[in-house]
Amino acid sequence: MLAFSLACLALRGGVGARPALRAAGAARAAFVRMAEPAGRAPGGYDMSRAQLDVLSGRQFRRDALLQYSSTNQSEPLRILLFALLAAALALAPLVADDVPSSMTAALAGAPARGACALGAAGAGALFARERARRTAQLVRIERECALRELPVTLDDGLVRRTVALRELSGERAVVLILGPPAHVRRCLAEAAALAPRLADAEVALVGVPIVGAAVDGADDDDERASSAQTVRAARALLAALGPAPWLGVAAGAHRWKRFAAETLGSAAALAARGGWIALTRRGRTCGSGVGRAQLDELLGSLYGPRTPLPPAEAWAAADARRAASAGGAAPAMTAGNDAAAVSLLAAQRALYTALAAADARALAPLWAARSAELAAQSGDTPAAVFFVGGVSAGGPSKAEAGEGAARMDDWAAVLADGATRGLRFGGCAAALLDDEVRAADAEPPITAEGVTTAIEYPPPRADGSMPPTLLATQRWVATAEGSADGAGPQPPRWRLVSHRTIPFSYRMGAVACLRCDARGCVAFVNRGV
């Protein structure tokens, strides 16, 4: 308002009046936009206000009703036609008794009345089904509209800002990681190894730490206390992981907790096990679940790179330049340029050397003892989010997985046909997990834990065509029994816990993924296929 007053004074002077007036108008418009509450359209019309929907008999947000009407114009008409048909068939025999005529005489018989009754029942069933589907769709759209208004804090290292989630629509897709602070921090710490792939897919991760399970019927003091703890946990999470363009944390703890409980079910289960919600670039939900999200499978199944990935030769040239500039250090991206990260990437290169040579003997020493148990303890279970049909440690038994359960092939069988011979890789990245996010109850005790990722380029097929590129994720541990002895700090001796691959190609969604441990590999098929 001060700028507007100064512009009025400038009008009297006549010098620079028009530029000053334009500046004042822009300042006033910005002030009005800042003063408008979330969900209010320009002009003061509150789009978040509830409005009665006649067909469902309940109230929904105005923006949800508008979004539904713009994309489903024929469904309300079809529902009304089913209702009118059911009413007409049900009333036809009554009308025939009261209005005798040659046309209604045919409805006087028992067969005609029975046919009308069956027709009315069928039309009524169709009306109820379509009405229920429409109501469920409106509920989903309303939740998406509410989600887009929730606040998120972003920090790219230059500017820290808190914005509504809807402001990210069109820029990037979003995956929300919800749960207790330890669960969220571990998931995001592991995601640091996927940072280049998140950039390729233009996906942002938002951590939503939740402290306290009470939502409905909770005491106000307890709810305020748990919300305050959630806010502190979110700030600590952002401070611990550091600024990153792909990372954000939730702001407004109480609103996030209520939304998460309403969307994913029990708040107690969410606070104990965690959950995730995947959003498209338009802000629409494309997946959700309770438990741990396998981010590599989400990237391959739902998103994929926005542009074609460079060929393997480009990665090799970039790695050579990076190694030369680093004085011979590991030619890859790491979350820390220390001895542990360098040794972790060296272990990854040893893995790919064995795979490219299809050498099962060279591969065997790389695996950790009891790798299947370690994978289950760290939460890297083979019960995939989007994929079913396989059996491995920590996952469902073959009977639980269903008739389509696949068998596990040992490494001798996997490498026998030379499928990995000549395999090339690039775009490597690594992340080390600190003591606070490391699995504390693992046996034998884990002294170091890390995650590596890479883009794999399989050899050409028999017909000369090139298969799609793959996103590979490896989990590594260094246990007490495998640590190096000697004076002074020594880099850990890394042993492989799990190896996962999934197609990750431009404009190509993954229909299957592969999960491997020391015993062998098993394929999982997308449930939607």
Would you write up a description of this structure?
By secondary structure, this protein is of the alpha+beta class. The chain folds into 4 domains: 2-35, no CATH class; 50-148; 151-293, Glutaredoxin (3-Layer(aba) Sandwich), CATH 3.40.30; 312-526, Nuclear Transport Factor 2, Chain: A (Roll). The protein contains 17 helices and 18 strands. The strands form 3 sheets. Strands 10, 11, 12, 13, 14, 15, 16, 17 and 18 form a 9-stranded mixed beta sheet that branches. Helix 8 (220-241) links the parallel strand 6 (203-209) and strand 7. Helix 3 packs across helix 5 and helix 4 (75-98) runs antiparallel to helix 5. The longest helix is centred in the first third of the chain and has 39 residues, at 110-148. It is elongated and about 100 Å long. Residues 1-22, 24-38, 214-219, 327-332 and 382-405 have low confidence and may be disordered. Keywords: Signal. Residues 1-17 form the signal peptide.
Give the key terms.
529 residues; alpha+beta; Glutaredoxin; 4 domains; 9-stranded mixed β-sheet; 7-stranded mixed β-sheet; 17 helices; 43% helix; disordered N terminus; signal
What is the class of the largest domain in the CATH system? Alpha Beta
Q: Oligomeric status of the shown chains?
A: single chain
Q: How many individual β-strands? A: 18
Rg: 30 Å
- What would you call the structural class? alpha+beta
The total domain count is 4
The major beta sheet can be summarized as: 9 strands, mixed
Helix content: 40-55%
Q: What is the CA-CA span between the terminal residues?
A: 59 Å
The residue-averaged pLDDT reads 73
Shape: elongated
How many helices? 17
**What is CATH's topology name of the largest domain?**
Nuclear Transport Factor 2, Chain: A
Instruction: Estimate what percentage of residues fall within beta strands.
Output: 15-25%
CATH architecture of the largest domain: Roll
Q: Which residues form runs of ≥5 with pLDDT under 50? A: 1-22, 24-38, 214-219, 327-332, 382-405
Keywords: Signal
Signal peptide: 1-17
